[in-house]
């Protein structure tokens, strides 16, 4: 089921920031708790961005969600992401410096002690210094493990805490006279290496989530508004629809609105992906988060708060990055049982070495040449603890838990940078298998900014037609509505008939505007790719309009690229066949369906699917909504947002069908990285755990290997962000 199927009209989408999570087991626990809340339809928790995305009923409030999160031991914060990340960075850096300052000298002393330079005071030093690192520097690990255990689940902190505390306890036993080797230094090394690995991993994860962070930074905090003739600066939360906002050159446009005076070039690259500035003047729409470059503008606010384009975009990116894809199910199932299973295996292996030490240990002597770190001891208890600690530490499933989320964060971030909003993460897995791309004509293959180039209507009829058409958002309707300059009459009883046209009442006359029943009469216009609209007044012909919509610059090249990739391009339009064929010839599309009604578009999508093809449908209007829903992947062109968001898996913020090619490439690259991440994460654990259980792995090396496996997953995911040429 696609996640957007859950979003009914009256459902609410909420994104909250979660604190205290350290691994996939934590995020899974929070997600399960949120899904149990009454009224919640969908919940997804993203470890990489530390956010939860929830779809719920109006009766379910934020307090209910917070209580569910707190019940499993984690928290919800309202702190700004930048402030929270800065605080987390400073805390982790302080812990790292503290841990390394003690552990490095301790490790040097341990090596000297093992080399024969025995120091009578070293065991006590190991007990005190090791305890400081384990319980002071590693306090967050212990806190995380305790939270998990008291809420009846386990996580990565459980493994690290049990392993490091077990190692430190050997020092305590050794100092008190119990004949067991002291591993206090190893306990400190485990914690120090773990903190170092987490610090590096966190930095890399922040880089991978760069796009979503940049979007959040685009949100303005204040705006200069005109209140009763006086200009004043107010918080962005206080800005209301209808207010007038002044935007100075070089300033961030704080709201969505329409320019009422002034003229300036605007940089919309962070939102649309287009690097060329756009000229804005009176009547033009501007988007909050874009940058005003050259001139002063006064903007009338049209959308505020969560209704703004930027807020919707942030919400969609968070939704996509937090959602699940089929391949992730296996990793999630494994991580849920991984920690308790590994703990049992560690106990079994440690106990086995303790009981059968005399029989098993001689076999390791022949391997010491290749594994010089194998513990030299004649104490079964010492070696049993050695194996137990190594097994606990090596098996942390961090890499497994990060494999899919990190690739999704990088992939959706790259898509955002290319002008694509992937709102359903399943699209990442499905799009790579697309075999057929079905495209609407108007607004998809063409610019979607048509103009009336000829008409034979009287001024009275043209005014009535323009008044009716201005009530519609269809690109052709906008073209007709803009064809008349002057005062328009007031229309009523407007009925829009999908795929046919529109009917309305103006000053006592009924006007019908739509496709000509006999298009052959207009062949000279149709053969050049124009669209003809006929007008009837009170059932009698009143004339016609000729509308031309130029091809998008990228349409021809995109169709050629699809063919090279083995994808079949198909054009699907409600326009007449002559116009459709003209456009098809220009773009190089051989399969066309013309004169298709909205329900017919869905039938054609189903027909290709029944032949075994994975279908990507690209459209931009109400006529395409059913087909967008029915296709394996629905892609909406344009930033009208409302219908596009409801109907599509992917929203194209700028550009044309070339974005479909980009989407297929990003999907293939992201899914390849996900498979690589999962393969190496599984392989690492399958190889490392038996090696540790066999006594061949030093706990400090095990911790380093565990950290490196997580870092390698993040680094591999960052490869997605590299530009393709």
Commentary on this structure:
This protein is of the alpha+beta class. Among the domains are: 240-303, Calcium-transporting ATPase, cytoplasmic transduction domain A (Distorted Sandwich); 420-446 and 553-654, Rossmann fold (3-Layer(aba) Sandwich), CATH 3.40.50.1000; 451-548, Calcium-transporting ATPase, cytoplasmic domain N (3-Layer(aba) Sandwich), CATH 3.40.1110. The chain has 27 helices and 26 strands. The chain has a seven-stranded mixed β-sheet, sandwiched between helices. It has a six-stranded antiparallel β-sheet with strand order 6-5-7-13-8-11, with no helix packed on it. A six-stranded antiparallel β-sheet has the order 16-21-20-19-18-17. Helix 22 links the parallel strand 22 (568-572) and strand 23. Helix 4 packs antiparallel against helix 6 (156-175). The radius of gyration is 32 Å and the shape is elongated. The two termini are 34 Å apart. The model is unreliable at 1-9 (pLDDT under 50).
Tags for this entry?
725 residues, alpha+beta, Calcium-transporting ATPase, cytoplasmic transduction domain A, Rossmann fold, Calcium-transporting ATPase, cytoplasmic domain N, seven-stranded mixed sheet, six-stranded antiparallel sheet, 27 helices, 26 strands, 50% helix
Main sheet properties: 7 strands, mixed
**Largest beta sheet: what is the strand line-up?**
14-26-25-24-15-22-23
Structural class: alpha+beta
**Total helical segments:** 27
Find the CATH superfamily of the domain at 420-446 and 553-654. Answer: HAD superfamily/HAD-like
